[in-house]
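tool=predict chain=A
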Amino acid sequence: MKSPTDYEQLEREQKAFDSQLADMMRDHDGEFVVFRGEKPVAFFPTYNEAYQAGLDQFGLDEVYIVSEVKRRDHHPTSVTWAAGVM
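tool=predict ok
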């Protein structure tokens, strides 16, 4: 059996994160999560703390997500428009 590529694994992690976001928001809205193995590993008050914890636990070669637990706006946005360039 072929092992998944990092990209495929990241896609699975993102889908699992998205499907669990509402549950995580109930108790951790506005916090930052380290998410790996298709489940939340730990929550932190700041991005830097979550990022450092992910590095400490998984290093640079493992696939995991560090993200803020918040409702997402899924409307496409032009980066140049948002930055005020256009």
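The first strand starts at residue 32 and ends at 36. The radius of gyration is 15 Å.
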